[in-house]
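Progress report, Aim 2. The chain analyzed during this reporting quarter is listed below.
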Amino acid sequence: FKGGDTCEYLLSSGRFLGEKVWQPHSCMMHKYKNSEAKNCLIDKHVVFIGDSRIRQLFYSFIKLINPQVKEEGIKHGNIPFEDKSASIKVDFLWYPEVNGSMRQRIKSWTEGSVAKPHIIVVGAATWSIKIHNGSNEALAQYKINITSIAPLLEKLAISSDVYWVLQDPVYEDMLSENRKMITNEKIDAYNEAAVRILNSSSRNSKAKVKVFSVSKLIAQETIMKSADGLHLPESSRDTNAMILMNVYCNKIMKPIDGSCCQPQPPLTLIQKIAFCFFTLSIIGYLIISLIHRNNYRKNKSCTDLESGEEKKPAISTPNVSTLEMLLQCFCKLGLIMTYFYLCDRANLFMKENKFYTHSSFFIPIVYILVLGVFYTENTKETKVLNREQTDEWKGWMQLVILIYHISGASTFLPVYMHIRVLVAAYLFQTGYGHFSYFWIKGDFGVYRVCQVLFRLNFLVVVLCIVMDRPYQFYYFVPLVTVWFMIIYATLAVWPQIVQKKANGNCLWQFGLLLKLICLLTCIYFLSYSQGAFEKIFSFWPLSKCFELNGNVYEWWFRWKLDRYVVFHGMLFAFIYLALQKRQMISEGKGDPLFSNRVSNVLLFISIVSFLTYSIWASSCKNKTECNELHPSVSVVQILAFILIRNIPGYVRSVYSSFFAWFGKISLELFICQYHIWLAADTKGILVLIPGYPMFNVLVSTFIFVCVAHEISQITNDLAQIVVPKDNSTLLKRLLCIAGFFSGLHFFSAMQDQSRH
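Predicted structure tokens for the chain:
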């Protein structure tokens, strides 16, 4: 109801998450690094005017620019600071009282051609209370002085950012004897006077002095940790400085995880075209539906005039044409994409920062585990990694990853390392599943390739258009797409070796192993040759797909992180299918996979390996070092899990239908979370219902899962239309798709040119 001015919220309201993390009301605060602060404040002049509390804020502010600064300046005097590398000047001017001297200094910036500071931070009152022993006459004089200064500040606020810092409360029990007259009652009276007088004139609302009142809230929570009862502890004043930096810099730097004070981005040309397309689809679908409904009503009851009996119409239900199904899909998709845009691009819903606690991650994990075990059913088949089992595996992994993202558990390294294994397991399944299909079926046709590529990429392409994000932003889809093409190329290139051919001659199996060795060699070479990798993916049009922030480093990092696991999946599929063909494993219902002795030994080794990896991951101290080892060792826990899950006959014969249901829409869940469950491109949390965190998560989760399920159905329906089995029709559709991407590239180039 208050509108979308998140700057006002940032300066006036919020709460602590834990002890040190400040959460502004309704928006997200970015934590600025030194380099970012310098880039924002380059060629800027910042002035702090006031008493010792403002001096504290000044030091915290300049430490964001240069952390090496020490608080060694004159206590009751002016303190200059300059960063020559970025031409930044920050000055502290000692004016502990709001009086004629302060007025004269401020007035000097409003006269003539004097260079005005870009940011002015003012605040004072405690000295007036102290010197005049808290007298009412001093308060009256304070009101008179602020009244004379207010018009000057408002004049400066037209071209500069001006902030009036309200006085923080004190911890009266800790105040020294010569400060006992500084009471919270007096401070409230001075603050009330300042707020009432500032901006009281009916001037342009855009040029008003911004009242920095949030420091009061921060002080109320932390002043008891003060050393003297008057000055804030360092962590609190650092928070105030970071808020100041967000207020000024967010609109300049536009950080993804800093939604406070950021204006809504303007619609791009491609977004406008998409909006028109979805609008026309909705209108077209409504028109066709109305026509069909009217025709159906006319034919519904045909009365025989002679007998007076009703005859059944020739067509009892309206035929759903391909065009109507297409328009219906785009109609639903248009409504869903509108929700996506409103959640994560329009300043309609609130966004908040994540805050990790062990309970916020592990309690939901236990909860979904109980639910998963409760919904246990018998599988249709008892083969290793059968369809129900792989869906179940994808499902519980996806739910764990979702909880990991919303709880902010990436800050806890042991959890991060285990989640990396889950991502690797997805890629392992990619290698296993696609290798098994091509090896058994021998189907290398264009239809199969187009079906897989469409199902993987349809949602991401639509989101790239609607949300104005690069393809590489949704990194997992490019990853599985490239690996699918690598698997296809490896097996489809001459000589094509499939199971049917290999059964006739064992040499073909050695030929396949030779292909896999060549693939492994290429992976090894590219992983240690960043230059060669970047050259391959820097060529147009690959560069348009895989660049992020102007380079392909992020893509190289993501690819390198799980570079061997797809190969491991292919190799596992080959070995498993070879053992299955030679009947060396038993996959009957309730039967152990091997003989009892071998099964027990393998089961023991698997459990030990699984726990050993978990112990190693939990003892990780350095993310970079652990990431270096991860590609080589992640397969240990994956294989251990597969053996534990499949060696005992009973365990292999059951599955969780709860997890399997989520597994069928796991890709949609992974992609949709970016914008309608999380917020600010996964950096924060979407808040539909402020003030009730648990209720908000329940509502947003319900909508999120329903949307993911609906998109999965839309994708399946469109795949049947866009990718037909008839080769000649498919060729025409591929030409249309090529034309679509050419047009998209043309409009993208126009868009980039207009931005520059």
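Residues 726-755 form one domain. The chain has three domains: 26-253, 349-723, 726-755. These observations will guide the mutagenesis work planned for the next reporting period.
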